[in-house]
Design a protein that fits this description.
This protein folds into three domains: 93 residues, no CATH class; 92 residues, no CATH class; 46 residues. The protein is built from eleven helices and no strands. The two termini are 51 Å apart.
């Protein structure tokens, strides 16, 4: 089955969901903005507390968006909607593992840049080689980011641990890197286009982008899409088998001819 996910149509759908739930998204964005102000304070305890709260808000935001996409009731202010400690830990562990796998290449890329600035000419040859290797890591980082993009969403949706969520995202995106790459680039540009309007537009574009990513996750996870892929592969195998059977000189044809000759001789 051909992978289809029309960005223009999804922007319209995400705008409808965002518009009807504007005040919830505005509240969540305001909380994140307030946390960013607190994190600027030079206090280790306060920054640690802000980090924990940011994980909590991120979890609730993803869960809320999933409920919107699935058209299910979810009262974000209800006591029953609060995540358990296990759910939060699964989400945090998944995010950390995702971070270590994807962003490792970006940090490696920073090291040679620092050496080029503060190092002497003696280092530059080795640094040039290291930059090439770092660029390879950068490319791998982008690749892993696309393949593992849905791991945190899956952790929230299925309450699964880091390893299972990583494997799930890897499985969903198999053979779909390039189709996903261009769509995610467009969604990313759309999300950060809100920064043009003095960053105020991010309140609109970032939630809409998250909605589209969850829609993309549901599209890949759709049983009809998965089953159609399996059926398409099965049909391809059957057609190949039929072609092999029809080919003159194939073992199956030869066996049929031999059995036919033996049967005529017996008669």
């Amino acid at each position: 089955m051909k992978f289809t996910f029309k960005i223009g149509q999804k922007i319209k759908e995400s705008w409808f969901l965002f518009k009807n739930n504007f005040w919830i998204f505005f509240l969540l964005s305001s909380i994140v903005f307030f946390f960013n102000i607190l994190s600027s304070k030079h206090s280790l305890v306060l920054n640690l507390l802000v980090l924990i709260l940011c994980f909590f808000v991120a979890y609730m935001t993803i869960r809320y968006v999933i409920s919107l996409v699935d058209k299910k009731e979810f009262n974000i202010f209800s006591k029953d909607s609060l995540p358990t400690l296990e759910q939060i830990l699964n989400f945090v562990k998944t995010y950390i593992l995702f971070f270590l796998i994807v962003l490792g290449g970006f940090f490696v890329f920073i090291i040679p840049s620092i050496l080029m600035i503060f190092g002497g000419a003696y280092f530059r040859f080795l640094v040039s080689i290291f930059i090439i290797l770092a660029l390879v890591c950068l490319v791998l980082g982008i690749y892993f980011k696309i393949r593992l993009l849905f791991s945190c969403i899956n952790s929230v949706d299925k309450n699964q641990g880091a390893v299972k969520s990583i494997k799930k995202s890897w499985s969903l995106t198999r053979n779909l890197f390039w189709p996903l790459f261009w769509r995610i680039i467009v969604i990313g540009l759309f999300m950060f286009s809100g920064a043009i309007i003095f960053f105020i537009g991010l309140i609109v574009t970032v939630p809409m982008g998250l909605i589209m990513i969850v829609m993309l996750f549901r599209t890949l996870e759709n049983p009809n899409y998965q089953n159609q892929n399996i059926n398409d592969n099965d049909d391809l195998v059957v057609e190949e088998d039929i072609t092999i059977i029809k080919e003159e000189g194939s073992p199956i044809v030869e066996i049929i001819k031999e059995e036919k000759i033996i049967g005529e001789n017996n008669i």
